[in-house]
Amino acid sequence: MVTLERLKEVGVQFARRDVEGIVGCFAEDGVFRNAVGAVPEGESYQGHAAIRAFFTGLFQRTPDVRWDHTAEYVTADRGVTEWRRTATLATGERQEWLGCDLYTFKDGMIVLKDTYIKVVR
């Protein structure tokens, strides 16, 4: 079973933009499913190397990105975070949208983080 405290620990790593801290929250074969991609499930990144590369690139492109949690829930091995994401692109364009992450944990480690967003156009 996952605890709310564990879910909040994961959130701290994202708030710090700590790539190694984020990667360390995932199981070795854990999967991050992005909200966007060429398939309905979104682009998937499996394993520490792929997850590290994704978040390293994201933080380089949007160094001020942040996810302000508005709600957090846990039940059994699942967790949910709801958030408002803000970021500034290199072009100066400001992004802001709402989203949520659906987590599945095993032995306290993330085996799946599935992201959903509402994009403002």
UniProtKB/TrEMBL annotation:
SUPFAM superfamilies: NTF2-like. One of its GO terms (molecular function) is isomerase activity. It comes from the Bacteria. The keyword Isomerase applies. Keywords: Isomerase. Residues 14-111 form the SnoaL-like domain. The keyword Isomerase applies. Signal peptide: none annotated. This is Ketosteroid isomerase-like protein. It comes from Stella humosa.
